[in-house]
């Protein structure tokens, strides 16, 4: 992945790019901002930090889940959730200081972990979430639990 990112940067510097520059930086951004909790490859720590690999692609496949993921990155979350039959009480910080392009890159990286497939996140999706109604971190936990009950979130 790093080699592909370096090649994309080279092509971008020459004014030639098959994909937007921000789309290639998801793994790098994930490793900078998310790996401390969610671990390399999004494997998480059972009972402490939720795994993302093999789950986020399923969440993103539903429009309600996609909206939730975009809002989650901007708002963070605080409260008790259940992942893989284990309760987790914790806090996820918000990343609203990152650019929409950066947040989209992180989400796209996580959606495609373990060969996951799903529609791409774009900066426009994050921009829409940023300008939408504001939710508290506690409200995000409630929304997440409601979506889990509706089987949008595994």
Which properties best describe this structure?
single chain, 154 residues, mainly alpha, Cytochrome Bc1 Complex, Chain D, domain 2, two-stranded antiparallel sheet, 8 helices, disordered N terminus
Proportion of helical residues: 40-55%
Low-confidence stretches: 1-17
From the 3D structure, determine the CATH topology: Cytochrome Bc1 Complex, Chain D, domain 2
At the first level of CATH, the class is Mainly Alpha
Main pleated sheet:
2 strands, antiparallel
CATH architecture: Orthogonal Bundle
Written as H for each helix and E for each strand, in order along the chain, the element string is: HHHHHEEHHH
Mean pLDDT, as a whole number?
87
CATH superfamily name? Cytochrome c-like domain
- What is the domain total for the residues? 1
Quick structural gist:
The chain has 154 residues and is mostly helical. 49% of the residues lie in helices and 9% in strands. It has a two-stranded antiparallel ribbon.
